[in-house]
Structures are given as structure tokens and as C-alpha cells.
Amino acid sequence: MLEGREIKVEIFDINHAGEGVGRDEGKVVFVPGTVPGELVAVRLTEVHKNYVCGIPLEIISISENRQTPACAVSNNCGGCRLQHITYEEQLRLKTGLVRQNLARIGGADGALVKPIIGMADPWHYRNNVRLKVQRRNGRVLLGFYEQESHRLTIVDSNEEQPCLLAHRELNEVAISARRLMEKSGAQAALPEEVTLRRGSTGEIMVVMIAENGKNKELTGLAEGLILIPGVASVIEYQRPVTKKGYGRYKRLSGAEFIIDEIDGLKFKISAGSFYQVNPVQTAVLYQIALGYCGLQGQEEVADAYCGVGTITLYAARKAGMVRGYEVVPGAVQDARANADLNGIKNASFYQGPAEKVLPRHIAAGFRPSVILLDPPRSGCRPEVLEAAANSCARRIVYVSCDPATLARDVKRLSELGYELAEAQPVDMFPHTSHVETVVRIERK
């Protein structure tokens, strides 16, 4: 099997990256832009020991689940790879991804995975977008990188093609920001990147990353950005001096933070804080997580990877006491401020890696009856899972953004005396291959 060879492949599934999956001569074949059930003519572009990659040349047999993407640049943009698949089929495939991973990697019963909860309107759901900035042929361009490249896909070069996943107000700010940058002149310094964040209050934060050594030159741009309708805060991010350090955020104009609200709880969002990007599905996700906790009002709860305290404060309204653990100093400050903002007195927050601080607390006698885990895509460190088991918590509620690492950790917890009871996927990112899952894990 050689690169450049043309083959015919029947697609039977998608992988974690949204590529179609087929087989040929005993090897798995990955083909982007295809739909399960299709017969595709493919040219091979990469050949590896156990798998090959290719590009589609012709869809010989078209699936009934194929549709024309709503976005004209979706085939190039790296932001959403599933627009060519009907939304109903996207949901079915994502449920399948979670079931397959939990069964194959986690050794769990796939039947414990409930059908994914989708969105009534799967468009313009993102309250956070990260845009690259380039000057090209005398114009300023804002957009996303094309798939697996550093070439920019433009989302606002004309107002008829905004990003269909971003909140409409963020698209309007992006267009205004680009015009402002163009008016600043060909010699003016530009940020390398702009992040736009929107709270449910309608407040929008603009975060700029300057080119090295040009931090001071963004002050004038900030004075113009703060005048754009909806913009309440303009922040500059300064990169860390070392790879292990934290960068610095500097307020250039407006407020230091914006406010968001979910289910009656208010959250202060600073520039460097992690926060879920889909407010509609975030409320669904947290309600499921809280329901899985089964709190009666007296329990002690641990929340590892707590961020700005969103799930922590949700749980605090139903628990006796909650401890949150977070590595990012700024997020811990926000979490404490959010507890004060909501008048919550039974939540405390601890700064440091969860794999160090949580085991120390467990060793000192902390015995939570419920442990919440909401780790990054890489999943939980082994020390966190071992500490959870050592606490003898009756229940673990795990919120995951990666089915493979979730399954790995479920398997490890099964070896430590726990078993999967139920899993509920939630479609936080329609038209992408990403899927969020909440699982309830019980002590055997």
C-alpha cells in the first residue's frame, strides 16, 4: 500500500477527529469529509503500520445523512468538521463514540451510556472565539487556521459569511475590530491573536496577544476597541518568560472582568479563566452532574479541577461543605470572588495541582462522600484517582471532554473499587467531533 495509490473504501464510522473510518487490506483508513454508509474513491496521502490516511476523490455512493454545509468555508476551516453531516446523525455518531470508548478501553457496558442530549438550535452557541490576525495584501484579516496548517480561513472578510458557531454579537465585534485595525494604517502594530468572550449580561471582553516587544503599541488600539458596542473590557496578554511560567494579563481599557449567570448563579470571568463556551448546554451539563451527585444537604464534597468554581458553587447550594482544587492562581481568585458574589459560605478553594493538594487533604483526614472530577482533555492524573479511592467516597461524578481518557480513567477506577453506573453525553460543540460526557461512578 503506497502513498498516491487510489482505492475504494466503504465508510462505517467516524473517529475522534471527525474523519470517516473505513478498512482496506486489513488497515484502518481515515478519510475527512465523508459520512458513514458512503462508498468513496480515495487517494492515499499517508501510510503507516496500522492505518492509512487519504483524501476523497469521489463520493460513489452518497449517504442520506449527508448535507450541504451551511458555512461556505467549512471544508477549509479547522473549527467545525461535521457540517456535512445532518445534526441528527452527528448526535447518533457521538453517542456511539462514547459507547465504543467506554466498552473498548474502559471495559464497561456500553448500554449504560444514554443517548446524547443535543441542542434545539445548534448554531451561534459559542460565547468565546479565538481569532488569528494577519496583514495580507494591504488588508487586515481575522479568522481561524485551515485544518492542519497556518493558513488563515477568513470568517469576516465579508459580512455575508460570519462564523456560524460564534454568538452573533461576537461576529459583529470581530467585524468592527478588523475595520478599526485597517484604519490604523499599514505600519501600525497588530495583535497576533484576539480572543472575544461574552457573558450572559451582554458584556464582551477583548483579549489581545501582542507581537514580542510591541506590547506598548496596542494601547491606542484598545482605546478604539472599548468604543465598539458591547465591549466592556480590553485586556492584553503578555506571554510567560519561561515555558513553565504563567503569562500576565494587563487591563488596557474598561473592566478587569465580565459577569456571566447560570441558573441563578453569577460568575466573574477574568481573561485567563477557563469557562465553558456553550451557555445553553453548560446549564444542562451542570444540572446532570448535580443530579448524579445525589446531595441531601449534609455531605462533604471535593471538586478537583474546579476552575472559577462553577460546579463547586452549584454543589454548594445542595451540600454541607465543598472544597475546590485548581492549579491556576487567577482562577482560584475568581472562584473565591464568585462565592462571595453569590453569598455562598460553605465553599473553600485551594490553589495547586489537584494531584498534589487533594491527596494531601485525604491523607490529613478529609473524607468527602462525593468527588467531582472535571479534568482537561488529558484526563485525571493517577494520583487524583488514587486519592479519590483512598477517601472511600461513595460516589464519583466525572465530567469529561474526551471519551478515550474518560474510558481510561473509568478502567483505573474499576481497579480501585468503583464501577460505572451511568453515562450521559451532552453535545456542547455541535458540528465538531468533540463530545462532553457526565458519568456516575459508584463504590462497589
UniProtKB/TrEMBL annotation:
Residues 1-58 form the TRAM domain. Pfam families: TRAM (PF01938), tRNA_U5-meth_tr (PF05958). This is 23S rRNA m(5)U-1939 methyltransferase. The keyword Ion transport does not apply. One of its GO terms (molecular function) is rRNA (uridine-C5-)-methyltransferase activity. It comes from the Bacteria. Transmembrane segments: none annotated. Keywords: Methyltransferase, S-adenosyl-L-methionine, Transferase. Belongs to the class I-like SAM-binding methyltransferase superfamily. RNA M5U methyltransferase family. One of its GO terms (biological process) is rRNA base methylation.
